[in-house]
Amino acid sequence: MSNKLERQKLTLSEGHEKLLLHSCCAPCSGEVMETLIESGIDFSIFFYNPNIHPVKEYEIRKEENIRFAEKHNIPFIDCDYDKDNWFERAKGMENEPEKGIRCTMCFDMRFERTALYVAEHGFNLMSSSLNISRWKNMQQLNDCGNRSASHYEGITYWDYNWRKNGSAVRMLEISKQ
Fold first, then answer.
1. Long-range contact list for 1-9, CB < 8 A, 24+ apart?
2. DSSP H/E element including 84
3. How many C-beta atoms lie closer than 10 Å to residue 162's C-beta?
4. Cβ contacts of residue 78 below 8 Å, gap of 6+?
5. How far apart are CA 126 and CA 116, in angstroms?
6. Which residues contact 133 (CB under 8 A, 6 or more apart)?
7. How many angstroms separate the CA atoms of 98 and 26, rounded?
8. How far apart (Å, rounded) are the C-alpha atoms in residues 36 and 30?
9. Residue 93 has pLDDT above 90, yes or no
10. pLDDT per residue as tens digits for the range 13-68
11. Is 49 in contact with 61 (CB distance < 8 Å)?
């Protein structure tokens, strides 16, 4: 299988010059990052994923994400682990099914923190690599992203479908590398 994918050149909508990309981990983010790079989009990575356990796994994912970002000269923002807050919010949801209310809570938590960073640091557009995963509910993610961005005037959540044109397959190729 080819490790080079013909990608559509993306452009940001009018009024948006720079993107803050919420990143869950390097394997998911790699294809999204490569697409943004090839499109010439100015972006930074915002790593915030307090639901990864144990801490050793969190550190592995974070370090791989940093390595990938550094390889491509992408600014990388490392947000706090914040696992205690995540566990507190998840209380009572331990037996909830995947794609249920626990996932909504988790996405809300991550996107609320991303939107706050966007508002505090001169960005006006945010997105997430989470949308590339076929194991996630895209509508649920987009609802959480849009809701979080709506708390701040002038902030937009870009709900681009990162799964298009074989991107999910390319994501898996990148993760194997």
1. 1/169, 1/173, 3/170, 3/173, 3/174, 3/177, 5/31, 5/165, 5/166, 5/167, 5/170, 6/165, 7/34, 7/35, 7/38, 7/39, 7/165, 7/167, 8/164, 8/165, 9/38, 9/39, 9/40
2. helix 83-90
3. 23
4. 47, 62, 66
5. 10
6. 28, 168, 171
7. 22
8. 10
9. yes
10. 899 999 999 998 766 788 889 889 999 999 999 999 999 989 999 999 899 889 98
11. yes
For the chain, what is the mean pLDDT? 89
Question: Residue 8: which pLDDT band, with cuts at 50, 70 and 90?
Answer: confident
Q: Which two tokens stand for residue 32?
A: 């999204």
Cα 81 from Cα 92, distance rounded (Å)? 21
How confident is the model at residue 176, as a pLDDT?
53
- Could you tell me the CA-to-CA distances from 56 to 52, 59, 143, 168 in Å, in that order? 9, 5, 31, 26
DSSP 7-73: -PPP-PPTT--EEEEEES-HHHHHHHHHHHHHTT-EEEEEE--TT--SHHHHHHHHHHHHHHHHHTT
Q: What mean pLDDT do residues 89-118 have?
A: 96
The predicted model scores a pTM of 0.89
Look up residue 177 and give its DSSP letter.
-
The residue among 138, 90, 148 whose CA lies nearest residue 114 is: 148
